[in-house]
Amino acid sequence: MPLNILFAASEDRWQAYEAPLREALSDIGQGDANLALDIPAAEVDYIVYAPSSEVQDFMPYTRTKAVLNLWAGVEGVVGNDTLTQPLARMVDDGLTQGMVDWVVGHTMRHHLNTDLHVMNQDGKWRRYVPPLAPDRPVTILGLGALGRACGEALAGLGFPVTGWSRSQKDVEGLRCLSGDEGLVQALSDAQIVILLLPQTPDTENLLNAARLDLLPEGAVIINPGRGPLIDDDALLSALDSGHIGHATLDVFREEPLPAEHPYWAHPKVTVTPHIASETRPKSASRVIAENIRRGEAGEPFVHLVDRSLGY
Ligand code: NDP
């Protein structure tokens, strides 16, 4: 019998994903699958899912073998008590490359102080020679699919990169730290800090006043992870005091960031509208199809979320 695959995401996403998903399903021998925006719950075999979808009660999906999240972040679904089916998050080459591009770009902006020339073309001959990359320590909080790729890319450019994660890692070319003591070390010499942690109860307000204080004077924060990782009031006061030199923020507690939020007008804050990286339909469709292939072959799913950890 053909598989029933529910696409539980917006019409816009359907336009972008329908063709690549059909192609990827065909490549795994499921070309006759019924892929649709609406299928009776009790008949659904797999759900391709965006947490903003109308599907919030998973109880009626009695034969569903897995919920396949379209995004890397799962904070919008992981706490859903009705979800008893396996939940996989998105790990996609296209998403990873996009994040590497964004992180490297924003790191280089601050490293080279590009703004000095871009924003000040006023007839003054401002000579500024930045330090070389090996003299600019960078710390990445989170060494998962995205943090590790960004860390490796920056290390490849010559930056001394420290990565911090929950479990101890061993990544060639990176100083890897973990635990509370590791976090203190990771922050104490970081001139640029990049947050690529998931949003969980353990990571909320991780960058608080005390931890911002650990950073050297003038350090730069780059947050493409999630807004709640940072204590906003603490960051604003560290920016105002001059302790933190700049913050480039892509993600916020409330999105879109309200027009009256102090971040918008702050001279030391750059706001980007949650565009650091997007799941790419073509490569992401292959990841979804691979998990469906695994489910049908009785093989373990990849990129499963650990509900107890929340990511
Ligand atoms: P992963 O799950 O692969 O990696 C998460 C990393 O964070 C792991 O290294 C993990 O440690 C670490 N971590 C989690 N909890 C803690 C903790 N309490 N203390 C220390 N380390 C912790 O996620 P991805 O790399 O794929 O994505 C990271 C985040 O990036 C996503 O959750 C999402 O919020 C964000 N994102 C933002 C996008 C944007 O456009 N702005 C786009 C895509 C993702 P360990 O390795 O030990 O498990």
UniProtKB/TrEMBL annotation:
Keywords from the named record: NAD, Oxidoreductase, Pyruvate
GO molecular function, one term: oxidoreductase activity, acting on the CH-OH group of donors, NAD or NADP as acceptor
D-isomer specific 2-hydroxyacid dehydrogenase NAD-binding domain residues: 115-276
PROSITE patterns the UniProt entry points to: D_2_HYDROXYACID_DH_3 (PS00671)
CDD domains: GDH_like_2
Keyword NAD: yes
Protein name: Glyoxylate/hydroxypyruvate reductase A
Native species: Roseovarius bejariae
